[in-house]
Amino acid sequence: MIARLRHWSRSPAFLLGLAAFLGAFVVQSGDLGSADSARRLQTTHSFWTPAPPVLPQDYPEFGVHGRGGRLYAWYGIGQSLLMLPSDIVGTCLERLRMFDDYNGNDPSVRDIFVSSSVNILLNVLTALVCFRFLLLLGFDMNQAVAGVLALLFCTTHLHYTQNMMENNYILFLTLTGFKFHRQWLLTCRRRDLLLGSGAFGLSLLTRLTVVLDLMAGGLFLLLILYLEGARGSALRQRRFTFIQVALPVYSFFLLLDRLYQFYRFGSFFNTYVGVVARDQRILKPALSPNYPFETPFRVGFLGPLITPEKSVFLFDPLLLLTIIVVALAWKYFRPEVKAYLISSLLLLLAYISFYAKYTVWSGDSAWGDRYVSTAVELAAFISVPLLLRYRERMQTWVLTVGFGLIVISALIQSASLAFWLPLEIYQMTTLGHPTLVIALRFQNIVAFEMGKMDKWGLTNSAMTKDTWDFVRITTWNFLPFVLRRVGEAPPWVVSTLLAIWSTAVAMLAWVLWQLRKLSHY
After folding, report:
1. Beta-ladder partners of 71
2. How would DSSP label each residue in 167-219?
3. Does a structural domain hold residue 267?
4. Are 330 and 337 in contact (CB under 8 A)?
5. How far apart are CA 215 and CA 421, in angstroms?
6. DSSP H helical segments within 284-395, as ranges?
7. Cα–Cα distance between 428 and 436 in angstroms, integer?
8. For residue 44, what are the CA distances in angstroms to 108, 122, 224, 241, 268?
9. Cα dist from 466 to 106, 421, 472, 479, 481, whole Å
10. Is 224 within the bounds of a domain?
11. Residue 22 to residues 25, 107, 124, 154, 326, Cα–Cα distance (Å)
12. Along the 521 residues of the chain, how does pLDDT read in single tens digits?
């Protein structure tokens, strides 16, 4: 047994999985992190209980009238299905007698279990898939480890590990699709192509715009074949096999999405955007006839790039490092790396362009621009293994800037976890726009630690101090601290959770040190 443990402690994949598990465990707040996820969980609950898909009090802010006049959520079914097993278990836990005195409080036992179990599982699976994918791209073990850690701790993936939206689920499926597509080119096994296509197809159930990810996966394959010199009959045979395997898979998942659409709204051919627009025009006749695509393209296109509230370069500085490394070392890259970079950067451009005219191009109440963050992460994390691989070809200033951006990225992502997301959103109602959200978050951390939130004018005077939101934004956003601040859980429970949480932090530090020892850098 001891020998086996020693073997595992020297396995990069095991240590990465353990780091992903511990990292996700430590950052949990017990809350789903957004109203969107809470509403998707309500839909999940309606699958197996008499609960309605949409709570009546949420309308008209949320919900659309569908077949029979019933209120339905407009989201895809993907994330709701993902949460279903955890919702069943969490509901059963919540009904145990030991939680009788706690039930009715927020965060609920069910929310704590669902958010923690789903986020941890996705984080571990994403780490393992990313590690394998980087190896398939030709990076060595140390470079692949660094790339996985960059994704987990130096991109907005970390924030969405705490605040569960659709992003990390889509990222996992997209990375899985890329990984198996690349593996298919190396092995020629149809099983690999089937799994890759299945991952891309499954993501269609979550958000239809991921058809862009699907197209990026196809482009990735074509670029590798082209850059590796495939021409003539060899290229045609690959294309034929891809269409023969992938098209039925994509069609199957698209059919499932359309059946769900028909079940709710009685049509195979519309999308929730059209249904929402119809309902909103009835409620608000003054809406633009172009709603919900009435934003000037220039505003929505430049917004994710240059605005202080949403700029991808501020929330994911590693994207800037990717651009620098690509500009300086492109000619040295392997064909598969070039193919991935072209595909991921074009995917980012496609997402920015698609949402540019959307009424809430910014992703609304989110850390950064949540609509494009997954594409940003795909393009950003690979900068670290690239920097390590070609560091000997780089000038000293490039290495200095590169490692500086890595440190800055880690600090920004860590800061994103400190408080509940709405804090800066509330503050901007009084501070106005534009607001440099990243700087404001660091200011909030310092002010909270020094007990000067009120003195520095960083609390929202419009929010009464007996509201739930005020309770949440005035404590560190980690489960033991949230429960202690709420004050409803027994003190011994809070103390036990704090001890477990502290132990997990120490174990995470140990695992990261073990990974560092395996590396030659």
Report:
1. 65
2. HHHHHHHHHHHHHHHHHHHHH--HHHHHHHHHHHHHHTTT-GGGHHHHHHHHH
3. yes
4. no
5. 32
6. 297-306, 312-315, 318-329, 335-355, 373-380, 383-389
7. 10
8. 16, 18, 40, 37, 22
9. 14, 19, 11, 20, 18
10. yes
11. 5, 21, 9, 16, 33
12. 455 556 566 789 999 999 999 999 999 999 888 888 999 999 999 999 999 999 988 888 888 888 888 899 988 999 999 999 999 999 999 999 888 888 778 889 999 999 999 999 999 999 999 999 999 999 999 999 999 999 999 999 999 999 998 999 999 999 999 999 999 999 999 999 999 999 999 999 998 899 999 999 999 999 999 998 888 888 889 999 999 999 999 999 999 999 999 999 888 888 878 788 888 888 888 888 888 899 999 999 999 999 999 999 999 999 999 999 999 999 999 999 999 999 999 999 999 999 999 988 988 788 989 999 999 999 999 999 999 999 999 999 999 999 999 999 999 999 999 999 888 888 887 777 788 999 999 999 999 988 887 766 666 655 556 577 788 888 999 999 999 998 888 899 999 999 999 999 999 999 999 998 877 55
Dist. CA 155–CA 162, nearest whole Å:
13
| Structure-token pair, residue 33 | 């992190």
Contact 323, 382 (CB under 8 A): no
43 within domain boundaries? yes
> In sequence order, what are the residues at sequence separation of 6 or more whose Cβ sits closer than 8 angstroms to the Cβ of residue 73?
39, 40, 42, 43, 53, 54, 62, 63, 64, 80
**Tokens linked to 432:** 């106005």
Element (H, E) at 220: helix 211-227
Residue type, 236: R
Is residue 512 packed enough to be buried (19+ CB in 10 Å), middle (13-18) or exposed (0-12)?
Answer: middle
CA atoms of 302 and 484, how far apart (whole Å): 42
- Collapsing DSSP to helix, strand or coil, 414 comes out as helix
Separation CA 183–CA 134 (nearest Å): 11
Give dist(CA 438, CA 444) in Å, integer.
10
**Which own/partner pairs from 42-50 qualify as long-range (CB within 8 Å, at least 24 positions apart)?**
42/73, 43/73, 43/75, 43/77, 43/80, 44/80, 44/81, 44/83, 44/84, 44/87, 45/87, 45/91, 47/80, 47/84, 48/84, 48/87, 48/88, 49/91
Name the domain count of the chain: 1
DSSP state letter for 392: G
- Using DSSP, state whether 288 is helix, strand or coil: coil
C-alpha to C-alpha distance for 25 and 479, rounded to whole angstroms: 10
Cα 249 from Cα 200, distance rounded (Å): 9
Residue 185 and residue 224 in contact, taking contact as beta carbons nearer than 8 Å: yes
| Assigned domain for 506 exists | no
Question: Taking the alpha carbons of 487, 488, 492, 495 in that order, is the dihedral positive or negative?
Answer: negative
What range does the domain containing 32 cover? 2-418
Instruction: Give how far the C-alpha of residue 254 lies from the chain's centroid of Cα atoms, to the nearest Å.
Output: 22
Peptide bond into 491 cis (omega under 30): no
Beta bridge partners of 64: 72
